[in-house]
Amino acid sequence: MSVTITVATTGPIASKADNAWLPTQPDEIAEQVHEAYKVGASVAHVHIRDAQDQPTADIDIARITMEKIAERCPILIQLSTGVGLSVPFEERERLVELRPQMATLNPCSMSFGAGEFRNPPADVERLARRMEELGVKPELEIYDTGHLEAALRLRDAGVLSGEPLQFSIVLGIRGGMAATATNLITMVDRLPQDCVWQVIAIGRANLELTAMGLALGGNARAGLEDTLYLRKGELSQGNLPLVQRVAELAKALDRPIASVEETADRLRLQSTAGR
Fold first, then answer.
1. In the chain, where does DSSP find H-type helix?
2. In angstroms, what is the C-alpha Rg of the chain?
3. Is the backbone peptide bond immediately before 55 cis, with ω within 30 degrees of 0?
4. CA dist., res. 258 & res. 4, Å (int)
5. What are phi and psi of 139, to 5 degrees?
6. Which end of the chain is more exposed for a tag (fewer CB within 10 A), N or C?
């Protein structure tokens, strides 16, 4: 089966002080997405920053960023509604009004490092229903075992009806599941049949668990949101080296890389005409 590669360029945490190649402004993000697309990425997971490089849910900045990406390449856009720990849910959820092909849906609140990531149940259900109305495909981010159960309850209640469900298994965030092979296998075993899934491995375990996810039949995500380093002690010079590394892993495992069209077809994305 072919592999969908998602490039996660920016995230909500790291700064240019951590890695000078981190893209934070619309043109920077769009250019690095384009580079990733050229080596096999078919999905762009997009966080946006304001002029001071802080996480924001500003609709105008998000629109500009999406437009600049679309000007450069036809990659599928997955807009993050996670945004940042300091941004209220009510601001975050408005981003789906831009109707990206996909957006994140975080089923549960949790401790997140030294902070709190708030996703109240009623708000999550409201956002899920609005995404359904707009034809925006949810990417269900699962940081712990109970998050999967919460997502499946939404499915069973008819709130999530678009098959196949799309999951990201997030490992390595303080407050969520540790980045271990045992945790990855446990979660993969519990996923519903016929879903689409990928590993998001944060920090030092990024390479090993991404490779393991590929070997287990999952998709892969790569980028500076998940790790700032290409190898120990060597900062990645942008997102391109990390995406190239994942593409090489997939090829070594004899798994062809999915095109944008293949990814859209597999996820049964609604037509983006007029967006």
1. 26-38, 59-72, 89-92, 121-134, 145-156, 181-190, 206-215, 240-252, 260-267
2. 17
3. no
4. 5
5. -110, 110
6. N
- The pTM (predicted TM-score) of the whole model is 0.96
Q: Write the DSSP string, 239-255.
A: SHHHHHHHHHHHHHTT-
Q: Which residue has the tokens 């469900």?
A: 165
Q: What angle do CA 216, 217, 221 make, to 5 degrees?
A: 100
Q: Are strands 219-222 and 196-201 parallel, antiparallel or unpaired?
A: parallel
Q: Which residues contact 125 (CB under 8 A, 6 or more apart)?
A: 154, 159
pLDDT of residue 271: 54
Distance between CA atoms of 250 and 244, rounded to whole angstroms?
Answer: 10
Distance (Å) of CA 154 to CA 101, 124, 159, 204: 20, 9, 5, 33
Could you give the CA distance from residue 103 to residue 180 in angstroms, rounded to a whole number? 26
Dihedral, CA of residue 246, residue 144, residue 189 and residue 164, to nearest 10: -70
Task: Quote the CA–CA distance of 168 and 178 in Å, as a whole number.
Answer: 15
Residue 90, class by beta-carbon neighbours within 10 Å (0-12 exposed, 13-18 middle, 19+ buried)?
Answer: exposed
Residues 124 and 109: their CA atoms lie apart, in Å, by: 10
Contact 206, 227 (CB under 8 A): yes
Q: What is the mean pLDDT of each run of 10 residues along the chain (275 residues)?
A: 97 97 98 98 98 98 98 98 96 98 98 96 98 97 97 96 94 97 97 96 96 98 98 96 98 97 94 45
Token output for 41: 């990425």
Residue with tokens 């859209």: 264
β pairing state of 76-79 and 41-46:
parallel
Distant-in-sequence, close-in-space partners of 158: CB < 8 Å, separation ≥ 6: none
